[in-house]
Specification:
This protein is an all-alpha fold. It has 2 domains: 1-108; 111-157. The protein has helices at 12-32, 65-76, 84-107, 111-126, 131-152. Helix 2 (65-76) runs antiparallel to helix 3.
Length: 157
């Protein structure tokens, strides 16, 4: 049997975004204590131009392709497996970058784009198979059904 070896690593895109966040936090502290000028919190641009109208290109600043490849490499070959930590470190890096990208995009939404995003969510919420009519109702119905079965079987629940 092959001994698993780690396939993942801390990727530059992730590390550079953390450096940018730390720099922005320090700038906010300096401004709050009247020691400096507050800078606008900005990500590390990476391959992105920084043009807020380049919505497709903005993803380059938060690129997760190397991280995703690390996760794939960890499980690709059963004869040369990675370790559980590979999946954990890959998932966390990817999640951080995805959250940062969503927050950055949200901060720069135009009012019209924000209304259209909200309209799409509301359409889903109001749909017959949507969040309220299907998901929440099915969840509560399932709990109630399980409670009644447990009660009939003499178990408390």
């Amino acid at each position: 049997m092959t001994v698993p070896t780690s396939k993942a690593q801390i990727r530059d895109r992730f590390r550079l975004q953390l450096v940018a966040l730390a720099s922005g936090a320090d700038s906010a502290y300096q401004a709050a204590t009247l020691q400096g000028q507050r800078r606008w919190m900005s990500p590390d641009l990476g391959e992105w131009s920084g043009d807020l109208n380049d919505l497709a290109g903005l993803s380059k600043a938060f690129d997760r392709s190397e991280i995703a490849q690390d996760a794939k490499d960890a499980v690709r070959d059963a004869k040369e497996p990675g370790v559980v930590g590979d999946m954990m470190v890959s998932q966390l890096q990817g999640d951080y970058l995805a959250c940062q990208e969503r927050a950055y995009r949200c901060r720069h939404l135009t009012p019209l784009r924000a209304r259209m995003h909200a309209a799409g969510r509301l359409k889903g919420h109001g749909h017959d198979a949507g969040l309220f009519n299907q998901t929440v109702m099915n969840y509560l119905t399932g709990i109630l059904r399980a409670s009644k079965i447990a009660t009939r079987e003499g178990k408390s629940g």
